[in-house]
Every structure is written in structure tokens, then in C-alpha cells.
Amino acid sequence: VFLIGKRLFSRRAGCLASLFFAFTVLHIQLSHFLTVDVMLTSLVMLTIYWCVRVMQEGRFRHYCLAGLFAGLSLATKFTALPILLPFGFAHLAYCWRRGKILSPAQWGKFFGGIAACAAVFIACEPFFLIDHKEFMRQLREQRDMVQGRWAPPWTLQYTHTMKGLYQIKNLVAYCMGAPLGITVLVGRGYLLCRWF
Predict the structure, then answer these.
(1) Which of 34, 52, 109, 127 could form a disulfide with 63 if both were Cys (CB 3.0 to 4.6 A apart)?
(2) Could you tell me which of 142, 131, 88, 89 has the C-alpha nearest to residue 111?
(3) Dihedral (C-alpha) 79, 23, 46, 37: value to the nearest 10 degrees?
(4) Distance between CA 28 and CA 21 in Å, rounded?
(5) Using CA atoms, how far apart are residues 26 and 179, in angstroms rounded to an integer?
(6) What pLDDT, on the 0 to 100 scale, is given for residue 146?
(7) How many Å apart are CA 135 and CA 45, to the nearest integer?
(8) pLDDT at 77 over 90
(9) pLDDT, tens digit, for every residue of 1-40?
């Protein structure tokens, strides 16, 4: 968190982001119970860090490291799949700024990073190949649960909740804690006012 904040903004921003993250209530609780989400968060943050390096410098090793940590993230929890979006964005941003949007060498680096991601994912999640049918069945089951087509008993608490407001309430009350959650919402409001 610190390295991302420092690289994108300043040392002060990195310190502040690290402080906020250190006091995030949900992360503290999940660390206490040693859930998979703590490891996933670390791997996702490492992926984002290397994506920032791809965006700024575009070196092959940065692509490979971003791919490595994206693969580990996916092997930890497949819901990390959207982590490939910042990877693609970082590549396109670098190419666009440097006028290399059609550069075969740069696209080779990108596909090398994707290959690293796939190789690490398969090495760390071999059941994707060993029992692909069951792997996909379980993914479909989770998708159906999230989309409301299948409602196991533990998800009934989410029925009839107001979309958007429910998530914000839980973000503030249970994920970040009231002081940090309110600070984040006020900061977001401030940024939106500055943009418009």
C-alpha cells in the first residue's frame, strides 16, 4: 500500500494510505481469523504495484511480476479475476503515452505477462485442469448465488436490501469502521466536488 501511494502520489500519501489500511476493521478481523482474504488482499496489492510499474516503465520483468502475482491472486480466489483489468489498463496506458500502441515488442511483453499469470495459476490451482468440469460447476454455483438465481440460507439476509445504500452502510460500519469510513466518504465527496 505504501509503495503504491508513494509511486503514484508522494511519500506522505503512501504513509497515509498505509495508516488507513492498517486500521481497516475488516482486515484486522480477517487477519485475526487468518482467512484467505488477507492473503488475497496482499497478492492483489502486489499485482497493482507491479501494474503501476508497468504503466510507468513498461519493462518485461514488471509485466512478468504483475502476471505472477495476478496468477497467485487467481489461484487464491478466482473472484480476483478483475485484477486482469488494471493489468491491461497499465499496458495500454504505457503504450499510449509512449506512442507504442502498435509496438510488437511491447505487446510481446504484455502476452508474456499473461502467460506468466496463466502458468502460475495452473501450477498453484491444478484442479483447474485435473477436474475442470467440477471447477466450472462450482464457479457457476457461486455466480448463480451472487446473481440471485440460487439463494442458500446464509444469503437471505441480503434480500430486500436497498442496492448501493446497503453496501455503503456495511462499508462504513463493518469494513472500515465508522471513523475511517466517514473519512473516506468525505474525501470522495471532496474529490468529486473538485472535479465538477
Answers:
(1) 109
(2) 88
(3) -30
(4) 9
(5) 13
(6) 82
(7) 26
(8) yes
(9) 999 999 999 999 999 999 999 999 999 999 988 889 999 9
pTM value is 0.87
Query: How remote is the C-alpha of 130 from its chain's centroid?
Result: 27
Using one digit for the tens of pLDDT, what is the confidence trace for 54-72?
Answer: 999 999 999 999 999 999 9
Q: Over 90: is that where the pLDDT of 158 sits?
A: no
CA distance 78 to 40: 10
Q: Per residue in 13-24, pLDDT tens?
A: 999 999 999 999
Rounded Cα distance, 109 and 60, in Å: 5
